[in-house]
Amino acid sequence: MRNTFGPMLKDWRTRRRISQMDLGLDAGVSARHISFLETGRARPSQAMVIQLAETLGVPLAARNTLLSAAGFAAHYRARDLGARDMAPIRAAVDWMLDRHAPYPGIAIDRHWTLLRLNAVAAQMFGTFGVGEGDSLLEAFLAPGPGRDAVENWAEVARHMAVRLATESAHVGGDAYLDAAAERLLAEAGPRPPAPGETAAVIPLKYRLGEVRLAFITAITQFGSTEDIALSDMKIELMYPADDVTKDFLERFAAGNG
Questions:
Q1: Using one digit for the tens of pLDDT, what is the confidence trace for 115-142?
Q2: Which residues contact 154 (CB under 8 A, 6 or more apart)?
Q3: What is the distance between the alpha carbons of residues 2 and 240, in angstroms, rounded to a whole number?
């Protein structure tokens, strides 16, 4: 049977820019054994596959691929957020999003599909027809009210393209994210020369009717995940980037927006 685990292991080691010696030291085996695994002269145990994958920071879905290539069954599942055993996760997500009010907060998957929104985000994104189950990335890419609402679209698009490329590289390549990143860069055009000192953060500037809002974003992920879908989930909490936005959101929450 053709050895596919060895080339896959070598590919991930190369992606992470780790030598056979360093991988062996970190995983508790010899560099010679790593070499034998990559060339097919040795076969790994299931525990060894998982250990090497953890050492290399291989995403969970790709770990299943490595296990399959080594002749083992998949070890990791992708649960629906609505599954019974995901109840503590749902509670934690809802707790974070609800208590983030009066500021917008969302939970998205790897491809930026909206999984959860707090009430503020639901109302804000609802003004341009985007809600739970929709792709925030598609709304940002496609011509329409979602894209038109972002005043500094090109500036944000360049930063978003870098983020998408980084996320794709982390999982070993994702055609959807790569295509979106290429499209963003093509449509945003080259970065103009910086007139002076760069800002600490590039805010996302929304125009909602006559109201102009500016946000900065913090991203949170669950640690020690053993579920594929959960490992891909990101919680994005948006904060006001100026006093105008802060005052508007606080008035809005109080019923005076």
A1: 999 999 999 899 889 999 999 999 999 9
A2: 187, 188, 189
A3: 55
- Sorted by sequence, the CB contacts under 8 Å of residue 228 that are 6+ apart come out as 59, 60, 61, 64, 76, 77, 78
User: How large is the C-alpha radius of gyration of the chain?
Assistant: 22
Amino acid letter, 48:
M
| Sequence-separated contacts (24+) of 30-38 with Cβ below 8 Å | 34/9, 37/5, 37/6, 37/9, 38/6, 38/7, 38/9, 38/10, 38/13
Cβ-Cβ contacts under 8 Å for 158 (sequence gap 6 or more): 184, 185, 188, 191
Tokens at residue 215, please? Answer: 């946000």
Instruction: Choose the CATH number for 5-69 among 3.30.470.30, 3.40.605.10, 3.10.129.10, 1.10.260.40.
Output: 1.10.260.40
Name 218's bridge partners: 237
Read off the pLDDT of residues 6-34 as tens digits, 9 standing for 90 and up.
999 999 999 999 999 999 999 999 999 99
β strands within the chain, DSSP E: 105-108, 114-117, 204-208, 211-220, 234-240
Does the model's pTM come out above 0.85?
A: yes
